[in-house]
């Protein structure tokens, strides 16, 4: 080898050794941990004033703005996507990969090494050792030992020698790989996250009831056009009982592509819609004013006929089967009554929509009153018919989080791998057992050696249980003597 | 109020009694005391189980219908349940009672926090984001894991007490300071409770207005200084006479390896459950509800830090072959991060998590 090539390999070796050290992993994890703590103290992606206020508390008035400027330029205000934080994650990933590759051959040797019978001197030096004598012929005992081993889940090999026989077996040797599955799954999750960041998109859509749009805005306010449009047909909200605590809210959506309706569905919190790689999450809602608002009524006349009516504030309509005319005088998104029983609107959110309807007969005002969407009692008209406020269209917008994340399945795959890896690494153990039978006069000497990578105590107890009948026989015989 | 609060009241009193009996047993020995302690704990646990089920039924009768695991109050109470259940399993399996003197104060601390802050105990309707089975799995498994970590914390603390000899040893200083601070906090909160009977405040309000007001934050400067002096004195005494504790534990003939092993076993159960329930189910829930499986919000970040600490424990033990004192310290630190993740984040840091305002 030339000196140059040697240099090169030694450099490569040094780098390899650097990355295969577990100490590096400890340092990296500690750094990531400490920086993350900092990231929970400094509010991320917040308005500057918030963190300036925090810095004032810590560093005093004078220094605060300077400290802010410096930490801002170092990326501390959006730390988890700063180059140095991502770099630490990348280093950890490399560390993990190199470390695994470095140790894999050793583990493979352990796993693939075939079990061999143990020399007689070898008994007594394992994690679990047992020795006892059993009455009977060796053939009787062999049957019982085979049963015991089967009960323990082993498929033993047999080694016959002049004075007796040895059974030996191992199981679950492959769980030795489980920790590698755990480590690999961390890499898989990180890869999934990178794919998501690189090829994904995240944005927010605000669609007024009845409107159609293909526009979404990123957090930084950039506009983004989907390949299709979403129409919000309706937005509905249900409350718990009489309270203003929302129980469910839903947007009824239509997906429109090249002028055609492709899909009609609704979304709720925790029930998103997926279409062509995009996922739409119900995220918020709010009022937009009354200009385009349409009120939907259901009139039930005295003879039981019912009819739907669509009107705006200011419109009038005839009540069927009656001489009454109804005129919509006012709309309140959330009507409440104050101490003096005076009606007022307590919020712009549509928590308790109500309309004031005036009923006239010919020229004369007969009666008027508030009709609430949420209170059926308010729907009765004194003349015996019913006017129900069914819905209000065009008064609200729905806020939808849009996401395209081709990496999310990779992340989930990683999570599944990690779960499986953890299960095998912690709850299943590599086990080995050797049972030596030496025949004597009317008796058999039994020696057991066993090893468990984990859960030695349980294995020990299980062996005792499985071999219990053989031992009990000894005890019973002894008593009989 | 329904049956659930009656049964829960019984359980709560029972746990406090159990704590005192366990401590008495710890100091005076006596099989009789030990049996009383176990019986009281078992009865309290049964009573709490009845309370849990009747609260569930009550929620159905109110038309809300969900397992009682969805707000801070319910989850802390569930933590106590898991902790005591896990403890009884350990006690039964290993036939050791002395650990009880270290575990029951944890339960008392959690219950004391519930009562002191006067956090809302009502069965409240669930906001849409919280109506998710993933969330339920997340909360349930997180608290089972936290209970395992809490038990490992108790075992680790005992281990440290037994295994440290010299007063200038870092591990000795560590356990005597952290242990005495822990008891001083419980005691100071107890004083607040007796003084103010604080109820009906939000947790933030409680912390601002009442926490430690009868001691460290008293309006009278004299009392404040006095409290600090007493606290420092308490820490000093624990440090100075810690060997008494050591002798007591020694007299139980616990093998130190047993404590080390127990510490490891509990973490080996807690870690996978925390990974699956605390991190993975939480991420799936966030993904379903908001479309982000990970957003680095403070609660998530602190869960990750907790996870790192326990991963560090496992690696240190497994690869470096660290045993005993060093890993016991890691285990104690781990449980401190658990407490911070659950309560500290809500109290000190703001986040978008729904338990955010503690009410
Ligand atoms: C934070 C992420 C990590 C987690 C959750 C994790 C998890 C684990 C677990 C559960 C074990 C098995 C321990 C036991 O059986 O008690 C383990 C072993 C191990 N880990 Fe990690 N690990 C992480 C990061 C790393 C990193 C970054 C490295 C290295 C560079 C590493 C190197 C190892 C090694 C060498 C073993 C021993 C495997 C063997 O030889 O059997 N781990 N890890």
Keywords:
heterodimer, A: 481 residues, alpha+beta, Double Stranded RNA Binding Domain, five-stranded antiparallel β-sheet, four-stranded antiparallel β-sheet, elongated, B: 359 residues, mainly alpha, 76% helix, 0% strand
The value of Rg of chain A in angstroms is 38 Å
Q: β content of chain A, as a range?
A: 35-45%
Class from secondary-structure proportions of chain B = mainly alpha
Largest sheet report of chain A: 5 strands, antiparallel
Q: How many beta-strand segments of chain B?
A: 0
Number of helices of chain B: 11
Using the CA coordinates, give the radius of gyration of chain B.
20 Å
Ligand kinds: protoporphyrin IX containing FE
The low-pLDDT segments of chain A are none
Q: For the terminal residues of chain A, how far apart are their CA atoms?
A: 78 Å
In quaternary terms, these chains amount to: heterodimer
What would you call the structural class of chain A?
alpha+beta
The total of helices of chain A stands at: 9
Largest interface: A-B, 47 and 42 residues
Order of helices and strands of chain B: HHHHHHHHHHH
End-to-end separation of chain B in angstroms reads 19 Å
Show the helix and strand layout:
The complex is a heterodimer of chains A (481) and B (359).
Chain A: H1 3-19, H2 22-41, H3 48-59, H4 61-73, H5 83-112, E1 128-135, H6 138-151, E2 157-161, E3 164-171, H7 178-199, E4 201-208, E5 212-217, E6 223-239, E7 246-257, E8 260-268, E9 273-275, E10 278-287, E11 294-300, E12 306-311, E13 316-318, E14 324-332, E15 335-337, E16 343-345, E17 354-361, E18 364-372, E19 386-393, E20 396-404, H8 408-427, E21 431-439, E22 443-452, H9 456-480
Antiparallel strand pairs in A: 1-22, 2-3, 3-21, 4-20, 5-6, 6-7, 7-8, 9-10, 10-20, 11-12, 11-19, 13-14, 14-17, 15-16, 17-18, 21-22
Chain B: H1 3-28, H2 31-61, H3 72-94, H4 100-117, H5 133-163, H6 170-196, H7 203-209, H8 221-250, H9 256-290, H10 298-318, H11 325-348
The structure holds protoporphyrin IX containing FE (HEM).
